[in-house]
Design brief:
The chain is mainly α. The C terminus is likely disordered.
């Protein structure tokens, strides 16, 4: 009995670490993307290269450990579609619209996660869990919302893409939790494949020029490969985390991405963090530390 409890505790710690690692990676990716932009590689073209590398590298590395690697299911198909729309839609939206409004609309995702997890998984948080959820969501709003930007209601097509991207992000997390019986490696591969397909479609739609990649020097390809490797690690660890942690708790932990983004821009780029951003970040960190309160009801349905 003691060994089972200890194993469950270690599994939970590993899952939280995996989600925080993934959040940290995505929160800091602005820096290599900014470096690539200085070398005439925009985030749209970079995503094609990144996910092509992820599909190739991840497929080769994980093929041997995948259980039924080419197994097809509705959950796997929808995970690929939702992940692709979420990642690529967000990047294209911030390329063509106000970054803060796009980010705010995308990070309404916790609301959609709570609703979807409640409806699809029966993950109804207890009152303490709801308090943690509200604390994390309030922290995100505190960090992102500016009165001059107006209410978080879409005003144009790109903002609708950002909002729908947040819904897709929530759906992907819930589907991953629902498909907990499927190998995390298989789910990760479906995510990379979906992102690559969506990136190619978006580039065609916006008349991008992926052929510029063929003319890039070795150091640029080195950064692209580095990002691809990070995406592989982050995706696998995230899928492992979602296997053992409820979707609502996971989204609270994933908001750590905002904190990492704010801290790295402050430390690396010298961008000043306002008092409001510090307060919001502390609220998100506090909610992440207490996010286990969300798990009590969720574990009953695991």
């Amino acid at each position: 009995m003691f060994e089972m409890v200890e194993r469950s505790r270690h599994r939970h710690i590993l899952s939280v670490f995996g989600l925080m690692f993934a959040a940290g990676v995505w929160g800091a990716l602005w820096f290599p993307y900014r470096w690539l932009a200085a070398h005439a590689i925009g985030p749209d073209i970079a995503q094609i290269a990144n996910y092509a590398i992820a599909v190739t590298l991840g497929g080769v590395v994980l093929f041997g450990v995948m259980k039924r690697p080419w197994a097809f299911s509705k959950e796997i198909a929808w995970m690929g579609i939702s992940a692709g729309w979420s990642n690529v839609g967000y990047v294209f939206a911030i390329l063509h619209a106000d970054v803060m409004r796009i980010t705010l609309l995308f990070y309404l995702a916790p609301v959609w996660t709570l609703a979807l997890a409640w409806f699809a998984l029966g993950e109804k948080p207890n009152r303490y869990g709801m308090l943690v959820f509200v604390l994390s969501f309030a922290g995100a709003i505190c960090m992102l919302w500016q009165p001059a930007l107006g209410a978080p209601v879409p005003k144009n097509g790109y903002e609708w893409v950002a909002l729908s991207g947040g819904v897709a992000f929530a759906l992907n997390n819930v589907l991953s939790r629902k498909a907990s019986h499927i190998d995390p490696a298989v789910k990760s591969f479906s995510v990379w494949s979906g992102c690559l397909i969506m990136a190619l479609l978006a580039t065609v739609l916006f008349k991008g020029q992926p052929q510029v990649l063929a003319q890039m020097p070795v150091d640029v390809w080195g950064v692209l490969i580095f990002i691809g490797c990070l995406l592989v690690m982050a995706s696998v660890l995230m899928q492992v985390g979602l296997r053992y942690i409820g979707a609502t708790q996971a989204i609270v932990i994933m908001l750590f991405e905002l904190v990492v983004a704010a801290l790295t821009t402050w430390w690396i780029a010298g961008e000043v963090m306002s008092l409001r951003e510090w307060i919001g970040g502390i609220m998100i960190v506090a909610a992440s530390l207490f996010s286990g309160q969300l798990a009590h009801t969720e574990e009953e349905h695991a």
